Amino acid sequence: MAAAFFLVIYIFFFRPFEVKGESMFPNFHDSEYVLTNLITLKFNEPVRGDVVVFKAPEDEEKDFIKRVIGVPGDTVEIKDGLVYVNGSLLDESAYLKSTVKTYGGAFLTEGTSITVPQGVFCFRR
Prior knowledge:
This protein has 125 residues and is mainly β.
């Protein structure tokens, strides 16, 4: 009975996830476990600031954990290591120290802005 109960909870409601790497530091640490909620995203789209776990686009075997910084229709830009959304500096003081900088990568380069398409979300590394 306990195994059946656990299986239902695991499949439909909550699932443990192991953080691998330092991309979410200082909020989540390498090898730390977090409990993910599978229900919320079935009924609501993610909003800016949410932390989500999803399959890596290049490799379905890997999972990513990232924070949503842009929702469909938002314009996102990186300038001088700071993130701007819709032309305003993104306030991340609730979860990051002001000394943390974000630098462009393969998807979004320094000084280039993108508009987040419908059905897509922009994540912080």
